[in-house]
Amino acid sequence: MAITTDLTAERLLEAYPKGIFPWTENPVTWWSPDPRGVLPLDQLHVPRRLERTIRSGKFRCTINQAFREVIRGCAEPAPGREQSWIGPTFIQAYTELHNRGQAVSYEAWQGDQLAGGLYGVRIGKFFAGESMFTRTRDASSAALVFAARALREEECRLFDLQMVTPHTARFGAVEISRLEYLRLLREAVRERDT
Predict the structure, then answer these.
(1) Cα–Cα distance measured from residue 31 to residue 58, given in angstroms and rounded to the nearest whole number
(2) pLDDT confidence bin for 85, thresholds 50/70/90
(3) CA dist., res. 95 & res. 91, Å (int)
(4) Residue 7: Cβ-neighbour burial (10 angstroms; 0-12, 13-18, 19+)
(5) Which pTM was predicted?
(6) What's the start-to-end Cα distance of the chain, in Å?
(7) Which region, left, alpha or beta, applies to residue 68 given φ > 0 means left and ψ of -120 to 50 means alpha?
(8) pLDDT in tens, 35-62
(9) Parallel, antiparallel, or unpaired: how do β-strands 158-162 and 126-134 relate?
(10) In the prediction, which pLDDT does 22 show?
């Protein structure tokens, strides 16, 4: 959609309600893919083995207890991803959004150690999942399930994944047209004050 040299909390708050998000940092590239990946919260699928792991109490899940650690975890190199698209500018802009109450983290802990998590942008009844990471098997998946269940309880209307991956497809992620996505987005964002 666009290329800019800067990334700020203000620019993020302009972009998300229009269905646009940043993808790279130097330069900042802005995207609005068609089709768009979403997770229908009323159709969340949790694989049996993962549900057993979650119920076992292996992970303790929290909200907004370690936003900076989660975004930094998402920026760490991982197998198959030696370089991250999340650099200092991204961390600063999304941390500012978090400080304003419009970026959220969901954490999975094993004891006192952060085992995995995800973060995203929350505007009204809209949540855009930005990135997730894991240090322990199933930790990011447990955090994703926790986030989806918490968002469903809060009557979130749209969980944006940007794209469907084999991993998110396991949870029921689907693709919808950009036109349908923008319609759902307008409705979800409009509910910010209700």
Answers:
(1) 37
(2) confident
(3) 6
(4) buried
(5) 0.92
(6) 31
(7) alpha
(8) 999 999 999 999 999 999 999 999 999 9
(9) parallel
(10) 93
Task: Identify whether the C-beta of residue 7 lies closer than 8 Å to the C-beta of residue 121.
Answer: no
In the chain, domain spans:
2-193
Give the residue among 78, 66, 163, 73 at the shortest CA–CA distance from 106.
Answer: 66
* 77 band by pLDDT with thresholds 50, 70 and 90: confident
Q: How is residue 106 written in tokens?
A: 């969901």
For 142-192, write each residue's pLDDT tens digit. 999 999 999 999 999 999 999 999 999 999 999 999 999 999 999 999 876
SS3 6: coil
- Fold category of 2-193 in CATH: Aminopeptidase (3.40.630)
Token pair for 105: 């983290």
